[in-house]
Design the sequence.
């Protein structure tokens, strides 16, 4: 079994306050792991630390991504290496056209990997095909990135980016929040389409319902900055029935 | 403008002005300029309109009169129908593709739109008035795109030149003027153009300006525009050069349903100071004005925007909008912003806004998390910040020239 992501003894603080208090987690290649936990347990902090956001100070531990020291890499290097974070709150970029943004991102990653860049025509063909699958109107390519998008459209735009960038490790930070059931299925289909022996995902969620559509190989329960239990998909159902308080006890 | 305290610091300029030969057509203008300089001097910070931009340091400089160089700088093909070229401060008929008309031909209207006693830049220009471009477009004609270039070469020395440009468009006439001013970084010269622009009914002037003077240069510039009924004055100014730059636009909407668009970008780096000061008078009903100015500062740069909109009692149904925004890319950069609305009409839509800030770290992280390297991500956000100021610029050629200038600025070191 080869390993996609290995987290060992990870501690991290935000503005001097320790949020992650020793996380150990191994995600083998080809597996989807869910991280569930109550609000404030450190789920989003973990996602941001893995993506390399400034202001999240790692105080101890190490993170290895396909054998590389992930924490030593800049955010753009992590992305080019194949790490993708689907944001809980996608950022609006007024004045940056969505098509320009997507193509710039895709080509920056391709360049970093020594692959040829896509020209505007090749890119549009790719983008249109993916958008069709996601039920996104083509007009969304012309708008500013996430500007004036509804909550559901923003999440779809995240999934579109993921589909185009085809990462090796996708981290979904509460991508299900604020989605109706149709949008939820579209997001799930997007992730499931990428599943394969060379793709792993960390699905961070508060609720079990996304996991009906993206069935995880493992479920971890994060409480107070530590993983307090791990199990198979059935653990998600148990959490749904008994609540975090009971499981943590 | 508020009362200006007497400042006696322009003696050097006055001596130089008096030493010049005076053609008959320029007598009145020169005398008015000298009188204003003698009475008011070069404004320092105690003068309200120059609170953020001190011109007193200019008084310490010694400039020479342009001699009329022999330099013939290499130029690309003309971008429009015609080109007028200043080299080292002298209008070069031999290198221009448009017949050079002497200012004496428009002597009757020279100084009509300026008020030297209250406009120090115009006063300084008047005291030295000698040459300039005269562009008159007859009623109903479309003159296409004309280029006005000013190039200061290494041979110039510390020159001061004060061209006075006169543009008059007849009823329904059209013109696009693409103006560019540049020079070497090591020369301390002064370029102080004044534009007197009169637009008759329904005329349309698009005025695109690229200020890329050398980093040791002084650039003072004032545009005075009288906009007739249903006429449009569309000004876009990029300020990226000079050590000290002051760009003043005084526009008056004098007939009903006129339009005035003043947009611009100031892109400044280490040690640069640039000031855009607009003064817009809505003097007639149902006119529209739009102003969007964006300033991006790196290093120890200082940007200034002052924008005054005056709506007279008779200017009912005025639709005015002014926005100025600054992006500070360094801790040492400084921006001063002073919007000012004076409204005497009661049926008016007039608003303004100002923001000053740094790049948004959330936006930057979002781009980097998608694999876009930090510098490229910053450039994308700066470009997006500037995009709004370029939006109104319809002419594709002018737009391309500007976009290229923006990219060039971004590539050069701060």
Sequence:
């Amino acid at each position: 079994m080869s390993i996609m992501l290995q987290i060992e003894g990870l501690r991290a603080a935000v503005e001097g306050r320790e949020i992650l208090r020793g996380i150990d987690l191994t995600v083998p290649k080809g597996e989807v792991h869910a991280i569930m936990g109550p609000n404030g347990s450190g789920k989003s902090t973990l996602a941001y630390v893995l993506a390399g956001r400034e202001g999240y100070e790692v105080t101890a531990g190490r993170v290895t991504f396909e054998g590389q020291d992930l924490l030593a890499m800049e955010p753009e290097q992590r992305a080019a290496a194949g790490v993708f974070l689907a944001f809980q709150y996608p950022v609006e970029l007024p004045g940056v056209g969505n098509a320009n943004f997507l193509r710039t991102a895709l080509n920056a990653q391709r360049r970093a990997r020594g692959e040829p860049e896509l020209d505007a025509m090749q890119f549009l063909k790719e983008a249109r095909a993916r958008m069709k699958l996601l039920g996104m109107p083509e007009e969304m390519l012309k708008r500013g990135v996430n500007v004036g998008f509804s909550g559901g459209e923003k999440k779809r735009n995240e999934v579109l980016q993921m589909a185009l960038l085809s990462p090796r490790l996708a981290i979904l930070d509460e991508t299900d929040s604020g989605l109706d059931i149709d949008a939820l299925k579209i997001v799930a289909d997007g992730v499931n389409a990428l599943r394969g022996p060379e793709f792993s995902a960390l699905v961070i969620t508060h609720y079990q319902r996304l996991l009906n559509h993206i069935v995880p190989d493992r479920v971890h329960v994060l409480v107070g900055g530590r993983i307090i239990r791990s199990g198979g998909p059935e653990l998600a159902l148990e959490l749904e029935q008994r609540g975090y308080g009971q499981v943590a006890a | 403008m508020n009362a200006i305290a007497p400042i006696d610091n322009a003696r050097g300029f006055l001596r130089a002005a008096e030493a010049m030969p005076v053609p008959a057509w320029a007598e009145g203008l020169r005398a008015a300029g000298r009188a204003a300089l003698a009475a008011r001097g070069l404004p320092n910070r105690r003068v309200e309109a120059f609170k953020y931009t001190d011109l007193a340091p200019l008084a310490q400089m010694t400039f020479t009169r342009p001699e009329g160089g022999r330099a013939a700088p290499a130029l690309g093909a003309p971008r429009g129908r015609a080109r007028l070229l200043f080299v080292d401060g002298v209008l070069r008929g031999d290198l221009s593709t448009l017949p050079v008309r002497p200012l004496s031909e428009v002597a009757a209207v020279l100084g009509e739109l300026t008020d030297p006693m209250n406009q120090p830049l115009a006063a300084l220009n008047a005291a030295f008035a000698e040459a300039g471009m005269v562009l008159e477009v007859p009623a109903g004609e479309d003159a296409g795109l004309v280029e006005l270039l000013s190039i200061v070469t290494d041979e110039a020395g510390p020159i001061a030149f004060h061209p006075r440009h006169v543009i008059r468009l007849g009823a329904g006439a059209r013109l696009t003027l693409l103006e560019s001013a540049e020079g070497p970084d090591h020369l301390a010269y002064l370029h102080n153009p004044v534009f007197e622009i009169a637009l008759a009914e329904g005329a349309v002037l698009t005025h695109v300006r690229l200020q890329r003077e050398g980093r040791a240069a002084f650039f003072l510039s004032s545009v005075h525009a009288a906009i007739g009924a249903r006429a449009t004055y569309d000004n876009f100014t990029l300020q990226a050069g000079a050590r000290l730059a002051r760009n003043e636009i005084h526009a008056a909407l004098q007939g009903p349903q006129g339009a005035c668009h003043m947009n611009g970008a100031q892109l400044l780096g280490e040690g640069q100071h640039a000031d855009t000061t607009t003064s817009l008078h809505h003097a007639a009903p149902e006119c529209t004005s739009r102003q969007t100015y964006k300033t991006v500062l790196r290093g120890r740069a200082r940007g200034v925007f002052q924008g005054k909109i005056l709506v007279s009692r008779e200017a009912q149904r005025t639709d005015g909008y002014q926005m100025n925004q600054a992006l500070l890319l360094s801790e040492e950069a400084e921006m001063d912003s002073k919007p000012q609305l004076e409204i005497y009409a009661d049926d008016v839509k007039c608003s303004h806004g100002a923001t000053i800030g740094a790049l948004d770290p959330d936006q930057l992280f979002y781009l980097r998390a998608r694999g876009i390297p930090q510098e490229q991500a910053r450039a994308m956000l700066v470009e997006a910040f500037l995009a709004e100021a370029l939006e109104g610029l319809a002419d594709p050629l002018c737009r391309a020239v500007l976009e290229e200038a923006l990219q060039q600025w971004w590539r050069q070191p701060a």
Q: What stands out?
A: Chain A touches chain B at residues 51-55, 74-76, 78-80, 85, 87, 90-91, 93-96, 101, 104-106, 108-109, 112, 144, 161, 165 (CB under 8 Å).
